[in-house]
């Protein structure tokens, strides 16, 4: 199957079987999503959603978090992974947003990456989810599933996978395709034991053709 045919099959399958695909992180503002995505690094969305309500109750705005300290933030996020680093990054991010961006989360991917704790994946999530920009965030699920399906080929790193994906995905599909790949990887195409027998995407999946 040629790349164009494979991507066409991918889009048609998920449009039909997963018409609604959204982040599972709970948020009410761009600031809250930015905080949640920073917290989600090497941590499950479920855990982040347990932590964030208390955090946002104490720090409902960028300005409130900027006026706090890493130690205060740490006390509220200590049950997530790498809480020390994340507390410092969250405080630094809030301070920069407050001082440089008047508390407003920027929509440009490159500008977002100037914020502490914000790498390319996080920046792409914000640009895609909040601003509906054609930005493809590549996490471990996206990286694994896109390679198994054959949407990417021997991608060297997340940036390489991102470039391969956006080459063939129509811009208007990219924000939703990000969630298709994440959710499929989270619940069906699992890392250790993919549920191939219950997967409807096997007809265009390279992994299934090679191993099943």
Helix-and-strand structural type: mainly alpha
The CATH architecture of the largest domain can be given as Orthogonal Bundle
User: SSE order, as H and E?
Assistant: HHHHHHHHHHHH
Number of structurally distinct domains: 2
Mean pLDDT: 96
Low-confidence stretches: none
Count of helix runs: 12
* CATH fold assignment of the largest domain: Endonuclease III, domain 1
Termini Cα gap: 18 Å
CATH superfamily membership of the largest domain, which one? Hypothetical protein, domain 2
Query: Helical residue percent?
Result: 55-70%
**Rg over CA atoms:** 18 Å
Mind telling me the CATH class of the largest domain?
A: Mainly Alpha
* Percent of sequence in beta strands: under 5%
Oligomer: single chain
Largest sheet: none
Beta-strand segment tally: 0
Structure in words:
This protein is mainly alpha-helical. It folds into two domains: 3-22 and 135-211, Helix-hairpin-Helix base-excision DNA repair enzymes (C-terminal) (Endonuclease Iii, domain 2, Orthogonal Bundle), CATH 1.10.1670; 30-129, Orthogonal Bundle (Endonuclease III, domain 1). Helices cover 59% and strands 0% of the residues. The protein has twelve helices and no strands. It has helices spanning 3-17, 30-39, 45-58, 62-66, 70-77, 83-100, 109-112, 120-129, 140-149, 158-168, 174-187, 206-211. Helix 5 (70-77) packs across helix 6 and helix 9 (140-149) packs across helix 11 (174-187). The model has no long low-confidence stretch (mean pLDDT 96).
């Amino acid at each position: 199957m040629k790349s164009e045919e494979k991507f066409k099959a991918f889009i048609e399958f998920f449009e039909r079987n997963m018409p609604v695909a959204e982040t599972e992180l709970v948020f009410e503002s761009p600031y809250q999503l930015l905080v949640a995505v920073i917290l989600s690094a090497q941590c499950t969305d479920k855990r982040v959603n347990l932590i964030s309500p208390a955090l946002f109750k104490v720090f409902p705005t960028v300005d409130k978090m900027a006026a706090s300290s890493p130690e205060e933030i740490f006390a509220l996020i200590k049950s997530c992974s790498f809480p020390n680093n994340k507390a410092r990054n969250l405080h630094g991010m809030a301070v920069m947003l407050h001082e440089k961006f008047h508390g407003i989360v920027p929509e440009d991917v490159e500008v977002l990456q100037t914020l502490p704790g914000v790498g390319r994946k996080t920046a792409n999530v914000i640009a895609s989810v909040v601003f509906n920009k054609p930005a493809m965030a590549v996490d471990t699920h996206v990286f694994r599933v896109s390679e198994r399906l054959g949407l990417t080929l021997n991608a060297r790193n997340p940036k390489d996978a991102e470039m391969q994906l956006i080459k063939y995905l129509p811009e208007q599909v990219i924000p939703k395709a990000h969630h298709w790949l994440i959710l499929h990887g989270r619940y069906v195409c699992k890392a250790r034991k993919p549920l191939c027998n219950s997967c409807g995407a096997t007809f265009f999946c390279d992994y299934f053709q090679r191993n099943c």
